[in-house]
Amino acid sequence: MDQSYDFFVPTARGLERVLETELDGLGLKSIHQGVGGVFFRGTLPDAYKANLWLRTGNRVLLVLKEFTCKDPDALYKTCRSMPWDRYLLKGQTFAVDASTWDTPLLKNAQYAALKVKDAVADALRSKWGHRPDVDRHDPDLGVSLHVVQGKATLSLDTTGDRLHRRGYGSDRKKAPLKETLAAGLVLLSGWDGRTPLIDPMCGTGTIVIEAALFAAHRAPGLLHERFAFEKWRNFQQSAWKELVREAQQTGSDAVSCPIVGMDKDWSAVQSARRNAKKAGVENYVRFLRRDVLDFEPETGPGLILTNPPYGHRLDLPEDPQLFYKKLGDVLKHKCNGWTAEIFTGDPNLAKQIELRTSRRIILYNGPPECRLLRYEMH
User: Fold this and answer.
1) Measured between alpha carbons, how far is residue 258 from residues 192, 196, 293, 295 in Å?
2) Quick one: 195 and 315 in the same domain?
3) Looking at the domain assignment, is residue 234 inside a domain?
4) Residue 59 phi/psi, 5° resolution?
């Protein structure tokens, strides 16, 4: 019988319940929420499965140790005592990332990562007679430290390149939403993949593409080039190949409902089409050049799910408040019977829509607090 481990899956704050539901749907056990993510207990193949199928998780971390840690010396001492030769072979490289919160003597995450790096290197030097090399870009073993209020979790990163990097995004600077957050918006909306979905301000198409992947029941991890666990000394290749084979056979070859993205910027529409092709969903979606203020649904009713410009993305030809007021007019007068889910980081602008919300969910797109606002047009 395979050994069981505790795993932690970080996610954007506000998506913990969605992620919990995803993990439960994969048949995983002992699922419970933590700060900024969700824990589960399972085998290494369970971690492979989570990496393959999760839409809202950022990565899958195998928990090595949880301990009290209030200063750098205690951190070094605990990490120095770990049996790192179980996880790293001679000649392999490693890297450490860290996050710290509300721990006065460990405010600097980079310094905390440096202490862990030194502890790992010193521990292995005592075993091997030399220090292992560090590779920050493509390590054989990723070590992760997370400290909240003096409580530390030390983990191994099974994922490597983060799960939001699906492999289809062409320009990360132009994409305001990570793929994992876009997928979270789709899941939070309650959309079932059977009714029309339109993003009338689609940009490079992230929301539309994630909706198509969901509707087609495609495993997003199939778009990932390689996972960190594939380089581990105890990698179970046959189990991984079987999971991939099952995922490839599970995906649908047809999506029955219209999934449409629109944008006034022709270059964004072209990027969205390229991204959809890379994601393998180009036959399930349509991208059109159209200004949202000229938007009128061709089918429906259904769901409007969009992330209008705000903050640093306010590249609008007119006053932002007037734009949001006009957006509200479009929803009110042209979208009868539809439900709209508007994701925004500016509540003052959202008020200009001048429609009553039926639901508000607080989410975080990185540090900024954002809201997913539901409007039902009847």
Assistant:
1) 12, 5, 20, 16
2) yes
3) no
4) -170, 170
Q: What is the pLDDT along the chain (378 residues), one digit of tens a residue?
A: 689 999 999 999 999 999 999 999 999 999 999 878 999 999 999 999 999 999 999 999 999 999 999 899 999 999 999 999 999 999 999 999 999 988 888 889 999 999 999 999 999 999 999 999 999 999 999 999 999 889 999 999 999 999 999 999 855 555 579 999 999 999 999 999 999 999 999 999 999 999 999 999 999 999 999 999 999 989 999 999 999 999 999 987 788 899 999 999 999 999 999 999 999 999 999 999 999 999 999 888 999 999 998 766 556 656 889 999 999 999 999 999 999 999 999 999 999 999 999 999 999 998 889 999 999 998
- Residue 29 is part of which domain span? 5-157
My answer on whether 343 and 293 are in the same domain is yes
Residue 5 Rama label (left phi>0; alpha psi -120 to 50; beta)? beta
Contact 350, 370 (CB under 8 A): no
Number of domains in the chain: 2
As a whole number of angstroms, the distance between CA 354 and CA 339 comes to 15
| Residue among 2, 64, 7 at smallest CA distance from 37 | 7
Query: What span, in angstroms and rounded, lies between the C-alpha atoms of 175 and 105?
Result: 36
> Do both 103 and 201 map to the same domain?
no
